[in-house]
Amino acid sequence: MDVNQQQIEEAADKILTALAGTHKWKWEENRKAILSEFSRDKIEQTLKLLQQQFTHQWDRKSIKKMPKSLKAQLGELTKLSKNQYLFTSPTSENNPSILAIWWPWGHGATVSLRLMILKESYRSPEIIKPKDSFLTIVKNLFSPDNR
């Protein structure tokens, strides 16, 4: 799937609208992403918005719980350092899966934020059931308490 700037802007419309007055965006053809580089004074507002808009925020510890299919798709991006984050949401009825990449610069005064469309969706970890869930359901159906 070859993604263009317009598709990302449409998929990320809520985020772009909320950040319109404070962030400037440019297209990165090689990454198929839109990029905003901004100063430290916008970090709190931007991070809060991303946390509200995305289902999952991944850091270097929580990345271990990321679905394998998503981890494979993101490859090297999953090797996060301190204060680097990935934000994802599974595909919804109206939108493809979006990825936000939060990358503070080494000096800490600037952050790069990239928005991309994932090539494939993924299942949310909250909806993945343990292997024995079906067996547990069957057992519960025939337990003495349910007769």
Task: Label this structure with key terms.
147 residues; 6-stranded antiparallel sheet; 5 helices; 6 strands; 27% helix; globular
Tell me the number of structural domains.
Answer: 1
Based on secondary structure, the structural category is alpha+beta
Total count of strands: 6
Specify the biggest β-sheet.
Answer: 6 strands, antiparallel
Strand content: 15-25%
Measure the end-to-end span: 53 Å
Order of helices and strands: HHEEHEHEEEH
Please estimate the helix content: 25-40%
The general outline is globular
Unreliable segments of 5+ consecutive residues: 126-132
Main-sheet strand order equals 1-2-6-5-4-3
Task: Estimate the mean pLDDT confidence.
Answer: 86
What is the gist of this entry?
The chain is an alpha+beta fold and 147 residues long. It contains 5 helices and 6 strands.
Protein topology:
Blueprint lengths: L4 H7 L1 H6 L7 E3 L4 E7 L3 H11 L2 E3 L9 H7 L10 E5 L8 E7 L5 E8 L15 H9 L6
Antiparallel strand pairs: 1-2, 2-6, 3-4, 4-5, 5-6
